[in-house]
Amino acid sequence: MSLVEVEALHRVFPMKRGGEAVTAVNRASFSIEAGEAVGLVGESGSGKSTIARILVGLERADAGSARIDGRDCLSRPRGRAARLERAQAVQMVFQDPNGSLDRRVTIGAMLERALRQHGRVISPGAVRKSVLRLLDQVRLIERHADAKPHELSGGQRQRAAIARALAVEPRLVVLDEAVSALDVSVQAQVLDLLTEIQRESQVSYLFVSHDLAVIQELCQRTLVLFRGAIVEQGPTERVLERPEHPYTQLLIASTPGEGWNPERVVRDRMTFTQRMSTVGDA
């Protein structure tokens, strides 16, 4: 049995004032193995973040099933024990740490709160030791425990957000565009950190991104999302170097690089859009 098993996941957002409903996730099915990093790619509006938010309980599904370690993760957990079980199954790292970290408290206090809420430590000495261990795990140092988020760099803030996600030792971490706000050199450092953490802990990742270079660096397997449907999936090297679906081919062609021709990309996109409007959703 896979660590994560998602079957026919479906989510429709009704439009206000009589507008047409939007299908954000369209019968998506996939799995994630223990210790595996899986990339979820697609354009803005393709449904990537909706899938991520459903898995961590921030968004509901209209149909389908999703299990983490054999346990349903679509129903709302009832009671402290169920909430703790959900927290230990999956955690999330958001794109913008400025919005996800509490600017009023220090990084150490934030990590202490996460540890205490989920019953990881009891004594004050054990709490401090666990906080420092988490900081070290994400390559921060002791003085960062006494800093507030605005006193850290962008890369340091995102490391702190990763530390908070790891505090309860989850089996799955969902990362939603977690390095897109960082410059290239800091991105590389954070990706190296995530790879090291995975190697040491065997945690699984679902890495949501529009950046194919980032996916290629971190993920062993890749899912391609178009209009909420997974149109292609497989080993990352095969998907990115020998794509089979026209939409995947278009995504790769749209990535600037050697031989990139923006006029051809626009022309191919128009052709693809016309084709899909004729045959329906992929």
What can be said about this structure in brief?
By secondary structure, this protein is of the alpha/beta class. The chain has helices at 48-55, 80-89, 97-100, 107-117, 124-137, 154-166, 184-201, 212-218, 236-241, 246-253, 262-279, and strands at residues 4-13, 22-32, 37-41, 63-68, 71-72, 90-93, 172-176, 204-208, 221-226, 229-235. The chain folds into two domains: 4-244, P-loop containing nucleotide triphosphate hydrolases (Rossmann fold); 245-282.
Q: Helices and strands, in N-to-C order?
A: EEEHEEHEHHHHEHEHEEHHH
Q: By CATH's scheme, which homologous superfamily of the largest domain applies?
A: P-loop containing nucleotide triphosphate hydrolases
Unreliable stretches:
none
Assigned CATH class of the largest domain:
Alpha Beta
**In angstroms, what separates the terminal alpha carbons?**
28 Å
The total count of strands amounts to 10
Overall description:
A hairpin with a 2-residue loop joins strand 4 (63-68) and strand 5. This protein has a 6-stranded mixed β-sheet with strand order 6-7-8-3-9-10, sandwiched between helices. Strands 2-1-4-5 form a 4-stranded antiparallel β-sheet, with helices on one face. The longest helix is centred in the C-terminal third of the chain and has 18 residues, at 184-201. The protein contains 11 helices and 10 strands. The protein has 2 domains: 4-244, Rossmann fold, CATH 3.40.50; 245-282. Helix 4 (107-117) packs across helix 5. It has helices spanning 48-55, 80-89, 97-100, 107-117, 124-137, 154-166, 184-201, 212-218, 236-241, 246-253, 262-279; strands at residues 4-13, 22-32, 37-41, 63-68, 71-72, 90-93, 172-176, 204-208, 221-226, 229-235. It is of the alpha/beta class and 282 residues long.
